Amino acid sequence: LVISDQKYVCRGSIRLVGSGGDCAGRLEVFHSGSWGTVCDDSWDIKDAHVVCRQLQCGVALSNQQVPAWFGPGSGPIWLDEVECEGNETSLWSCSSPGWGKHDCNHKEDVGVVCSDHVPLRLSGGEGRCSGRLEVYHNAVWGSVCDDQWDISDAQVVCRQLGCGAALRADGNSVFGAGEGVVWLNRVECRGNEIHLWDCPLSLKNHTDCSHKEHARLTCADSVNVRLVDGHSRCAGTVEVHHRGQWGTVCDEEWDLADAAVVCRELDCGEPVDALGDAHFGPGSGPIWMTFVLCTGSESTLKNCGSFGWGKNNCDHSKDAGVICSGKVFYIFFIHIYIRFLCFHTDF
């Protein structure tokens, strides 16, 4: 492998630290044999773009407006008042007063987040796209308090994680309580921000927020089961997502215990009926599961025993279906409303 001297110097002379990855963190530069920081005076998104380009980390997602977001550094403060046009190939092509000339302290150290790094994660869910929100700050993973937390905030997080649209922004006990530091509170996103750091928020150790109040969310790409062709999301043919493709479930041994797991996973209440023989019409694609054996207490259908993925002797005429109480209650209230209207019309 041949690496040019220029490329080696560029990648070795600046770095981002304090985020757990190479593409986000406090900016440090190497000069006169030691690493030092950069002051945030006059620092803007154009300067950050140059850093991300030099590190081959994509583009800058934002200019960190919170001073020392990734923690204060140590050693010399090498640069201040950096002014880049944004199209430079390295930070050294940008203007500044000179090495070591500044009027700053380490509480003003610059931080950068590039597009190739996401210092967020969702914990306690079935996959990476649902769970309790955690953020990485000051070299520690911590939680987010749910004060003022809503679907607009969740939309930004789901987009930043590449998890599709936000489905829910409320709590779910199965995600569990967090522990340790609560880094963020009072997050107020409009919903169209590129990532969470663009939203107004309060950053500190929030000791007034309990671990039962942590922000939780569910994104679209976390959904592994759905009901289709039933004129409601709470009734229809059962489909599961596996290996990037939606497929059906054979009705062999399909019963109310299995249906209960589907209804719970979809937040659709209690099972009303477990149906077979393609009650809602035959599906398409692979038949992923057969001889499903749930106890009824599992959190997801994928946690239930079965004959094995794609192993079956069924066809789509035996696709399993479910009706959950969410569907029934909806019809019940519509029925009562219609009777009410009819009664008053007759009167």
Could you characterize what this model shows?
- The protein has 347 residues and is α+β, with helices and mostly antiparallel strands.
- It has 3 domains: 5-114, Roll (Mac-2 Binding Protein); 120-220, SRCR-like domain (Mac-2 Binding Protein), CATH 3.10.250.10; 224-329, Mac-2 Binding Protein.
- The protein has helices at residues 5-13, 45-54, 151-160, 256-265, 325-346; strands at residues 14-17, 24-31, 34-38, 60-63, 77-79, 111-114, 120-124, 130-137, 140-144, 166-168, 182-185, 202-203, 216-219, 225-232, 235-242, 245-249, 271-275, 287-289, 321-324.
- Strands 7, 8, 9, 10, 11, 12 and 13 form a 7-stranded mixed sheet that branches.
Short description:
This protein is α+β, with helices and mostly antiparallel strands. It has helices at residues 5-13, 45-54, 151-160, 256-265, 325-346; strands at residues 14-17, 24-31, 34-38, 60-63, 77-79, 111-114, 120-124, 130-137, 140-144, 166-168, 182-185, 202-203, 216-219, 225-232, 235-242, 245-249, 271-275, 287-289, 321-324.
Task: Set down the secondary structure blueprint.
Layout: H1 5-13, E1 14-17, E2 24-31, E3 34-38, H2 45-54, E4 60-63, E5 77-79, E6 111-114, E7 120-124, E8 130-137, E9 140-144, H3 151-160, E10 166-168, E11 182-185, E12 202-203, E13 216-219, E14 225-232, E15 235-242, E16 245-249, H4 256-265, E17 271-275, E18 287-289, E19 321-324, H5 325-346
Parallel strand pairs: 3-5, 9-11, 16-18
Antiparallel strand pairs: 1-2, 2-3, 2-6, 4-6, 7-8, 8-9, 8-13, 10-13, 11-12, 14-15, 15-16, 15-19, 17-19
Organism: Sinocyclocheilus anshuiensis
InterPro entries: SRCR (IPR001190), SRCR-like_dom_sf (IPR036772)
Domain SRCR: 14-115, 120-220, 225-325
